[in-house]
Amino acid sequence: MDKKIFERIDFALIALILIALIICFIFAGHYNGILTDLGREMVYPEQILKGKVLYKDLFNIYGPMAYMLNAFWYKILGIRLETLYAVGTVLLIFYSAGIYCVSRIFLDKKMSFIISLVGIVTLGASVNIFNFTLPYSQAVTYGVTFFVWSIYFLLRFYDEKQSLFFINAGLFAGLAIANKYEFIPYGLLVFAIIIAEFLKNKKLGIRALSAFCAPIILCFSILFIQGLKISELLDTFDILNKIAHTQTLKAFYQSVGVMFSFKVLYLDFVALIKSGIIFAIIFGIIKLRQKHKIFAVISAVPIFPIICAAMLKDIQQDFLYLPLLLLVIFAVCYKKLSFLKRTLIVSALLLCFKTFWAFVIYSYGSFYL
What is the pLDDT of residues 275-293, one digit of tens each? Predict the structure, then answer.
């Protein structure tokens, strides 16, 4: 093999792909806490193949694309769980590769690898419904994967000013929105950026806007051709609006950070103090190791299991404060941040809109970690 070609091969990225494949192979099909509405993810694509129409015959709280794509995969690969496992595995590979590529814009290979590996383990090895191979919503796995690649292309465009990157950023943002509506806040950011670019370069702006709108228009055009009426779509939104104002959903959304509550804010503060103490101890041991290696090792022996126990207990609530902390850091360090970093942080905050007040791991927060 030519030495130059060998040097261009990113073995860290290849390793991530292999790890994702292995983890999905081991953990796919081994779940607990299966909820009743999870069956929707398996049944809806099958019903679409039988002629049922989303929002008309099938009540749907998400975007249409994920179910339409899975119906296509059912048609090609067969109506069985293994089809969804395979789709989830491919999505996890593209998601982790996207995280790695975004990280490489700012970090070295080692740190990028570690960050991507955290995503693979969190979403590939999870045995609850917040995973990639059989999630509570296929729409979120498609959507967050498209979101990551939209961010990547947007950052590459600002770095290199290549038109294709900008068009792809718009396209993948549109794909994310067509899967799940919680990506609309980020989509509005991309839309605003496209309009700003249109004022400078009309041709590029039109191409990017067309790419942005195309997935959404295509999905709903297919549904209207199949017989969906605008009145039926509006009825669905009306039902969703009524559900959103029920006390039951309000209490649930407060518990997962979608809506503000003082109780959740208190838990954020407790989680921050807990993590601060743990990381301060770790930092202290590292500093001690630089001067007194033996004492550092001796002190780490009893402290390490205590830290592990503290982190693993109620780990779902250990990082509740992350979006709030990121917002504070962004506000304090705004002037010191590069434009690329500002874009990345704002996009991340918009992604966390649904879990802003409480970033719960092994819940919605897992997909946005």
Answer: 666 666 666 656 656 665 5
Cβ–Cβ under 8 Å, residues 124 and 131:
yes
Global pTM reads: 0.85
Q: What is the pLDDT of residue 327?
A: 82
Instruction: Indicate the helix (H) or strand (E) that contains 59.
Output: none
Q: Say if residue 66's pLDDT is above 80.
A: yes
Q: If DSSP codes are grouped into helix, strand and coil, which group holds residue 35?
A: coil
Look-up: residue for tokens 């297919």?
Answer: 222
* H or E element, residue 265: helix 262-291
pLDDT at 155 > cutoff 70: yes
H-assigned helices in 107-229: 109-124, 138-160, 163-179, 184-200, 202-225
- State how far the Cα of 154 lies from the Cα of 131, in Å rounded to an integer: 26
Q: If you search the block for the tokens 């069985």, which residue do you land on?
A: 80
| Helix %, strand %, coil % of the chain (to 5) | 80, 0, 20
Give the burial class of 296: count Cβ atoms within 10 A of its Cβ; 0-12 exposed, 13-18 middle, 19 or more buried.
middle
Q: What 8-state DSSP symbol labels residue 103? A: H
Return the structure tokens found at 368: 């946005």
How far is Cα 358 from Cα 353, in angstroms, rounded to an integer? 10
10 Å Cβ neighbour count for 326?
A: 17
288 contacts: CB under 8 Å, gap ≥ 6? 295, 296, 299
Contacts of residues 97-102 at CB distance under 8 Å and 24 or more positions apart, as own/partner, are: 97/13, 97/16, 97/17, 98/145, 98/148, 98/149, 98/151, 98/152, 99/148, 100/12, 100/13, 100/16, 101/152, 102/148, 102/151, 102/152, 102/155, 102/344
pLDDT band at 4 (very low <50, low <70, confident <90, very high): low
pLDDT at position 362 over 70: no
At 53, the pLDDT band (50, 70, 90 cuts) reads very high
